[in-house]
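Private note to self, pasted from the team thread so I don't lose it. Backbone tokens:
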């Protein structure tokens, strides 16, 4: 191999990873070195660096090692589906975290804390929509348009407001008629 290759230590340092992380990636077949030195040390090429950059990017968005492996081995077929599933899972996690925030606020009995977190509940949205001039009919039209343009996002939005499932189902049903 030429001098354009890197050792495992150099590669680890470049990406801010530990040597043991790279050894683990090698052991599971995620990132194998392109060659070995005469002393049998792992050597990594520019292509290996590019692959590691992808691995780090996919790890940053929370993909599992299995999902990353699947994408890297068949990028055309699996990447979009896997990333869309992760995106939906993140939406659910965010909604769950918002619910936890509201539970903590209720437990503390201090509604002023709502002003310090980036969150708006159902009552806040209704007040905002009324403040800009929407009456009940205007809000119905707003929901109908939201449901028509993006049903999944409409569902997630309503969940994010802390509305219970039955009321969400009713709002969405009325929005479709």
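Design output:
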């Amino acid at each position: 191999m030429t001098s354009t290759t890197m050792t495992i230590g150099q590669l680890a340092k470049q990406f801010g990873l530990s040597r043991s992380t790279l050894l683990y990636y090698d052991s599971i077949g995620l990132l194998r070195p392109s060659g070995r030195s005469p002393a049998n040390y792992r050597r990594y090429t520019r292509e290996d660096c590019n692959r590691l950059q992808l691995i780090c990017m996919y790890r940053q968005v929370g993909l599992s090692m299995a999902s990353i492996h699947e994408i890297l081995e068949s990028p055309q077929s699996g990447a979009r589906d896997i990333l869309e599933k992760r995106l939906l899972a993140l939406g659910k996690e965010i909604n769950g975290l918002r619910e936890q925030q509201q539970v903590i606020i209720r437990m503390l009995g201090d509604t002023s804390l709502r002003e310090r977190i980036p969150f708006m509940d159902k009552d806040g949205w209704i007040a905002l929509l009324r403040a800009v001039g929407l009456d009940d009919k205007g809000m119905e039209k707003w929901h109908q348009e939201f449901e028509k343009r993006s049903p999944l996002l409409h569902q997630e939005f309503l969940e994010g407001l802390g509305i219970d499932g039955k009321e969400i189902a009713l709002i969405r049903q009325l929005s479709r008629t």
